Amino acid sequence: MSSLRQDLQTAWGKRKLSASVTALRMFHGPGESTHSSGKELAIDRFQNHFWITAWKPIEKSALDEVIQFLKDQSASSNDSSAVFIERGETQLSVPLFGSPPSERFEVREGNLIARIQLVETRQPGLFLDHAPLRTWLQQNAKGWKVLNTFAYTGSLSVACGLGGADSVLSLDLSKPSLEWAKENWLANSLPGERADFIYGDYFDWLPKFAKQGRKFDAVILDPPSFSRGSKKSGSKEFSTAKDLEKLHVLALSVLNSGGYLITSINSANVSWKKFEAEIQNAAKELKVRLQVLRKIELPETFPAQTFEDAYLKGFIFRMS
Can you give the residue range of the structural domain that contains 87? Predict the structure, then answer.
């Protein structure tokens, strides 16, 4: 048995889907593989369908071995399939075997339902590394008035809704993502009157909310590492490496006293120390205090061996 197949076999033995969990990272190469190609791979499972990610070009022989392994694991299922995407390339997901669903389909993460897309996309629609945060929100959001920025497909919004939030406003600069977020809200049978969806730039809308005196009990930030904003806001480019303080000044300006700042980034290049320092600088500028309630880290299904592997960093703060 090759080292790559052994790595896959070992990872498979540590995970198991169930009736209540039908979306899971099955293999996280950076922390689980001894094979050079395996270190650049991740495999997510959505029901019987697999989403394979490569962070760098990999050898065809290695990809073929992964395909054969997945086929072997799915021998009893006639509807299994796999798609592949290479990060950094412009291509969309490419089918590898089987017939990936052409339409969005539902998966479960405990009480939460998410609609997944596998074809003609660069992301399936659910970031599995945020599963612990979604659980925390469901346990703590009761009665909150929430602003979810960079909302993407709204899984964190849904988690707040399932947790009993009084209202959830989802803000994103992508109209298709917001439509997807609406689908997810409705898929969870959440009341439409408790949700609002706004298309627009964070750097346009947060100052507008502050000027209006509009406040929230929780503000959620999970920005991309880099994005292009609107011309109107003057923030043509945004980078978590250089704009963290500005980002959090705006978030804190619309947060109620005693409210929760829930913030995370996906960047191996920003240390925990720098991340927290930038946020605390924002708090000092507004003369407020932030208490760390907990860190947001990668779950067990995303094992990390090095600092660079542990890309997800986040905090849940209470403001006073």
Answer: 3-116
